[in-house]
Amino acid sequence: MSEHTALAKGHEPGTSGPRRLIGRVKSDKMDKTVVVEVVRFKVDGMYKKYVRVRKRYKAHDEKNEYHVGDKVEIQEHRPLSKEKRFKVVRLVERGVRE
Fold this sequence. Notes:
mainly beta, five-stranded mixed barrel
C-alpha cells in the first residue's frame, strides 16, 4: 500500500480536525438549538494582564436535552442555518436544577 492511498482514506497528518470548545449553555429557548458561551483568557497587549474574553456560539441540539447551566463540548460542523456552525458533542457537567 503506497503512501498516497493511505492519505486518501483518512485526513492528512499534521492537519487538525474540527475545532472543539467547552462552554456553558446560556439559552435553550430555541427548538433544537442552544447558545453556548465559551470563556477564554488572553493577555492584553499593552498592560500584559489576563483579560476574560467571552464568545457565544449557537449549537445544534437534536433532542433538546441540554439546558441552561450545563457545561457542554461543541464541535465545528457544516452550516446548519444562518448562524449555526457547531453541534453539541457531549455533556461535560450537568448544571444545577432549581
